[in-house]
Design goal:
globular; 91 residues; single chain; alpha+beta; four-stranded antiparallel beta sheet; 31% helix
Length: 91
Amino acid sequence: MNQHNITIEARFCPEILERILRVIRHRGFHICSMNMNVTENNNINLSLTVSSQRPLELLCSQLTKLADVAGIQVSHQQKEKLRFMNALSAM
């Protein structure tokens, strides 16, 4: 599976995190890690590592349609198949 690092800047409101997570799930992506910080100007910076076989453009195009999302930055990262990683962690 391909892993991608995404940084999302959005206006802070109680439901924005739920909306972002719902879009990620509906587009067939899995969250590997997540970190959120609230900035001084009442925005949030959300750093995510997501994995999927699907093209990342499907996810980014939907995230940019959310009204409170101000911007998205993407950095690509190729990872080995998760089956191999899961096998190592099971040992």
